[in-house]
Structure formats: structure tokens, C-alpha cells
Amino acid sequence: MLKRLKEKLAKLKSWQWFLLLYLAGFIVVFSASYGIKLLMTGLP
Question: Which residues cross the membrane (predicted)?
């Protein structure tokens, strides 16, 4: 399983890596802002 995943990752092009990192960064920023909003308004 892990071996196949590594092979797939090795085949990724540079633009695919960029897209993957961009998407990951977006998710991190989105979840962080959502978490801060929850802290500001108080947890339900």
C-alpha cells in the first residue's frame, strides 16, 4: 500500500505538487480562521 503510494508520489509533476501544496495551505488557513472565529464567539 505505502509502496504504491510512494510510486504515485514519485510520478507527480511539479505543477501537481504546487496544486497539492496550494490546496493543503488553503485548508490550513480556512480551518485556522474558522477555529479563531469559534474562539471569538465562544464554543457552542
Answer: 20-40
Residue with cell 505538487: 17
Tell whether pTM > 0.85: no
The DSSP code sequence of 13-35 is -HHHHHHHHHHHHHHHHHHHHHH
Residues 12 and 20 sit within 8 Å (Cβ to Cβ): yes
Give the three cell numbers for residue 25: 495551505
Per-residue DSSP letter, 3: H
Long-range CB pairs of 11-14, under 8 A, 24+ apart, other chains included: none
